[in-house]
């Protein structure tokens, strides 16, 4: 568990094309869980209200994710996102009214759609 946590913490800002940080690794070099968390982290950031921005609508976020497949995101993760979009959207919508501070929880998303 510690090793997985370390990999996610270290590599969830890496981009599939190698333009991310901190190690600028690419593709399959990025641990798969870090690739999933990267996508969920950005999904949550785009859909959520922040002090500096309003939330984006689901359709705009979906388009953004698809546009950045192969560059920011593993295309297979984006294919999974599209295939399970209604489930992910339902999970997101159900958490909007909860007391949780984050809109999406990577672990919950991975376990529920698994």
UniProtKB/TrEMBL annotation:
<dbReference type="InterPro" id="IPR003607">
    <property type="entry name" value="HD/PDEase_dom"/>
</dbReference>
<feature type="compositionally biased region" description="Low complexity">
    <location>
        <begin position="94"/>
        <end position="108"/>
    </location>
</feature>
<protein>
    <recommendedName>
        <fullName>HD-GYP domain-containing protein</fullName>
    </recommendedName>
</protein>
<feature type="region of interest" description="Disordered">
    <location>
        <begin position="94"/>
        <end position="114"/>
    </location>
</feature>
<dbReference type="Pfam" id="PF13487">
    <property type="entry name" value="HD_5"/>
</dbReference>
<dbReference type="InterPro" id="IPR052020">
    <property type="entry name" value="Cyclic_di-GMP/3'3'-cGAMP_PDE"/>
</dbReference>
<feature type="domain" description="HD-GYP">
    <location>
        <begin position="1"/>
        <end position="97"/>
    </location>
</feature>
<dbReference type="InterPro" id="IPR037522">
    <property type="entry name" value="HD_GYP_dom"/>
</dbReference>
